[in-house]
Amino acid sequence: MRIDILTLFPEMFKGFISESIMARAIKNNLVEIHLHDFREFSESKHKKVDDYPYGGGAGMVLSVQPVYDCLTSIDGYEDALKIIVSPQGETFKQSKAYELSNKDHIIIMCGHYEGYDERIRDYFDYEVSIGDYVLTGGELAAMVLIDSITRVIPDVISKDESHINDSFNNNLLEHPHYTRPREFKGKEVPEVLLNGHHKRINEWRLDKSLKKTKKIRPDLYKKYKEENNG
Ligand code: ADE
Hints:
5-stranded parallel beta sheet; elongated
């Protein structure tokens, strides 16, 4: 998969793409990341990328020209899926991460402004928000998207690190996990996990998942119940 990022702060991505699973996915040619500083495309004398809003009002508005020229300089941009990250988008979900992991080419636009010139939106397919809070810019949101998409691309994570049992895959939060030691400061690993009885272990895990989801995410629990016949 090829991912192009339009940003005013390409340096913010350097650590993200050089560590851990992202770095491995890039090294193994499963993902290609291209960073574009759209300020470089500004035709204004001082490389400005924003301007005052027509009609007045507070704050600056991101101009369409540098974004358009940067976008259209990208190889294959016409056929790519083009996404803006912004608090005004549809909320990003695990199901979307799976859907996007099948794409060959994604372009993500990160803004740093209160307002975008509305005409920028015409060149993108849709907007995505990572949650009901406002960040200073779209870069962290873009990294969240890229991380969650990359880890579900086939072969990015091994079977041992499998994402099949992740929270949200079946509208349930994950069950608790334990590893050695068997006892730590008087806290014991539940007996059921120690006896190798897989049916009982799976029942215990499902029960824990259900109880946790019902308590912490009643919205997800309701969905689970609806999809599993009450
Ligand atoms: N930019 C600023 N806040 C954001 C959010 N919540 N999601 C996506 N992009 C953003």
